[in-house]
Structures are given as structure tokens and as C-alpha cells.
Design goal:
Blueprint (H helix, E strand, L loop, with lengths): L5 H7 L4 H6 L1 H13 L11 E4 L6 H10 L7 E4 L13 E6 L5 H12 L3 E6 L2 H10 L2 E4 L10 H14 L7 H18 L7 H9 L3 E6 L5 H13 L6 E4 L7 H4 L4 H4 L2 E7 L5 H13 L6 E6 L5 H23 L7 H21 L1
Parallel strand pairs: 1-2, 1-3, 3-4, 4-5, 6-7, 6-8, 8-9
């Protein structure tokens, strides 16, 4: 398949998901400016909470990874209808919904707001933006019209910018510039007419297999989850993720599965130059004890020096892999028909409940 041919790409990807993946670095720069423009006060929050689901929720996991060894307050992602009990007065809550109409996030936002939490909405519009304006809450308004998973920079980077502008986080402006440079290099390399074929070769080895993505360090855990999510939504295939060292306490034993099942799995390990020697030892031993039974094993290494570049570089490579796998499977990477059907049925059930209550 000649994917370097624009006509071939348009046939395989009519909605242009590849173009959105290639815009990832540009989105990061734009998102920083959007977040920095929001001025708010939240002196010494007792907790930082990031509410969101799906493509709008992964930003909270990334925020936790970036701030894990820096923030004095806990950073808690929330992916459900409820707000945690501590998300009230004294806490800072980011409410992330690309559409602005995610029912779980809106419900959790209402709870936190009623308890007196300081809230910042990150959205392209919808009910969330309406409520934020009505309540006088700060809001980062991002460009609309994208699949939420393709808008990840707009949903994650503004949180860092808002925290920096409020004096709650060291300046990440330098790391952002490095991140944009590193990501731009990945785009130049991994696009179909690029100088590298790492992503496409991994996709070829994944054809007909179940991707299992492991992060060699908890820092890259959200990147492993993002790879899994992108395989689900872009490639329309099942995938699994986990992280070291936790998987050594349970999942490693599961590799005692039947040989035929093991041979249906392809392992991808996300590596970071700063992972501890002990974690590196765990990965090496586990590859021998368990992953040797898999159909194949690939390793993808984080690029760059700063935390932002290392985390997002692994994500961007995974986005490209998921796109290439979609083309190999002959599926359009953009539609998420099952998700839309689920929402349609839920909306119908909501109407039934309302009629029954009257």
C-alpha cells in the first residue's frame, strides 16, 4: 500500500486523522497560549483534581505523571460520575470535556462546585462552557470540531499553563519548546513520506495480533494507556496495557497461558532513559521469563530531556502506530460507531426514565 500517495491516504483515511496526528506539536504550542491566558487564584490547593472521560480524561493521568515528584498536593484523575469527597473548598478542579457535554464529567463537576471547589473548565463549548460562564468559573476554550482523542494537547497542556500562571508550578516554558521540537522531529520521521519507518514496521508486526503495551516505569504509565486507547479507537482492535513494577506482582504469572494464546500477543515496552536500574533489571528478567513466549516484542524509547517531551514523544509514536495499523486492517481510523450508538441508547433510556417519573 503506497501510503506516501495522498490519494491512497484519502481513501484509507477520508476524515484526515493522520493530518490531526501530524498537528500534535502545533497543538501543544497553541494549547499553552490558551491556558496561559487564563488568570486565576488558587493559593496552595489541598488537592488538584482532573475530571474527564476518554480522550478528555487522559490529560489528568498525564498531569499526575508530570507532577508526581513535584506537587505538594495530591493530583487525582477522576473518571466517573462522582467527585471524591475531598474535592471541595480548598481544592482545585480541572473539568475537562472536549464536547462540553460529557454526562459523567458534568455530574462530577456539579458535585465539586456545590462543595465550594475552585473549578477551571477546559472545553470547546457545550453545557460545560455554559455552566462555567453562568457560575463565574475560569474556562479555557479550545478549538472545536475534532475527535476528542485527537485534541489531547488542547485538553492537557492548558492545565500546566494555568498552574504555572497561578504560581503553583515551576515554569515549563522551556520544556514546552523542547517538546514541540522533539515532536516535530517525530512527525517528520514517522509520516508516510518521512525518513523513518519505525511506527509502520511496528504496525506490520501487530497485524493479526493483540497489542499488549507495558510501561517500563510508572512515569510512562499514561502513555501505555494512551497506546491502548488509540489501538481501540483508531485501529478498531482490542489491546491491553500495564506497568512495571506492578505487573510483576500479578500479570507476569498470567503469562503461563496456553502457547497458542501467547503466540497471538505482541508486546510493546515503553522505555525511559531515566528509569531506575532496578526497573531495568525487572524488564530484562521478565522478558526472559514471560515475554519470550509472545509472538514478538518491540521497545519504544522516550525522546528528549524534559519530562514533557519524554512523555508526549512516546504518545505521538503510538498515535502513528495506531494509524498505520488502521490502514493495514482497512478500517477508517476516525469513526467510533460503537461509542456513538451507546450514547444514542443512553439518551433514549434517559427519556424513558423521565416519562416514567411524571
Amino acid at each position: 500500500m503506497r501510503l506516501e500517495d495522498p490519494q491512497v491516504r484519502r481513501k484509507q483515511d477520508p476524515a484526515g486523522m493522520l493530518t490531526l496526528i501530524e498537528r500534535f506539536p502545533q497543538m501543544c504550542a497553541e494549547a499553552w497560549d490558551l491556558g496561559w491566558a487564563v488568570k486565576m487564584e488558587a493559593p496552595g490547593p489541598s488537592a488538584i483534581v482532573a475530571m474527564g472521560m476518554g480522550g478528555s480524561g487522559i490529560g489528568g493521568d498525564l498531569l499526575r505523571a508530570i507532577l508526581f515528584d513535584e506537587a505538594a498536593a495530591p493530583v487525582i484523575p477522576v473518571k466517573e460520575y462522582r467527585a471524591p469527597a475531598f474535592a471541595g473548598r480548598g481544592s482545585l478542579v480541572f473539568v475537562c470535556s472536549y464536547s462540553g457535554n460529557t454526562e459523567e464529567t458534568l455530574a462530577a463537576y456539579n458535585e465539586a462546585r456545590q462543595r465550594g471547589a475552585t473549578c477551571v473548565a477546559i472545553t470547546s463549548g457545550g453545557e460545560l462552557l455554559r455552566l462555567a460562564k453562568e457560575r463565574g468559573d475560569a474556562a479555557v476554550v479550545v478549538p472545536g470540531g475534532l475527535p476528542p482523542r485527537a485534541a489531547l494537547p488542547y485538553l492537557f497542556i492548558p492545565m500546566l499553563a494555568v498552574l504555572g500562571r497561578a504560581g503553583l508550578l515551576r515554569s515549563l516554558a522551556g520544556e514546552l519548546r523542547e517538546n514541540v521540537d522533539v515532536l516535530s522531529g517525530i512527525v517528520a520521521s514517522e509520516r508516510p513520506d518521512g525518513r523513518s519507518d519505525v511506527a509502520s514496521r511496528i504496525a506490520q508486526r501487530l497485524a493479526g495480533r493483540i497489542p499488549v503495551i507495558y510501561s517500563a516505569t510508572p512515569f510512562l504509565e499514561p502513555a501505555a494507556e494512551r497506546w491502548k486507547d488509540q489501538f481501540n479507537e483508531n485501529s478498531k482492535t482490542f489491546a491491553v496495557w500495564n506497568t512495571f513494577p506492578e505487573l510483576n506482582h500479578n500479570e507476569t504469572v498470567g503469562w503461563g497461558m496456553d502457547d497458542a494464546l501467547a503466540r497471538s500477543i505482541h508486546v510493546i515496552i515503553l522505555r525511559d532513559a531515566t528509569e531506575s536500574p532496578r526497573l531495568s533489571q525487572r524488564v530484562a528478567i521478565t522478558k526472559e521469563l514471560a515475554f519470550a513466549r509472545a509472538a514478538g516484542v518491540d521497545e519504544v524509547r522516550a525522546q528528549g530531556q524534559g519530562k514533557l517531551a519524554r512523555l508526549l514523544s512516546t504518545i505521538l509514536v503510538g498515535d502513528f502506530v495506531s494509524w498505520y495499523l488502521a490502514t493495514l486492517r482497512g478500517v477508517d481510523p476516525t469513526p467510533v460507531t460503537v461509542v456513538e450508538e451507546l450514547k444514542r441508547r443512553l439518551a433514549g433510556n434517559e427519556g424513558t426514565r423521565e416519562r416514567e417519573s411524571t
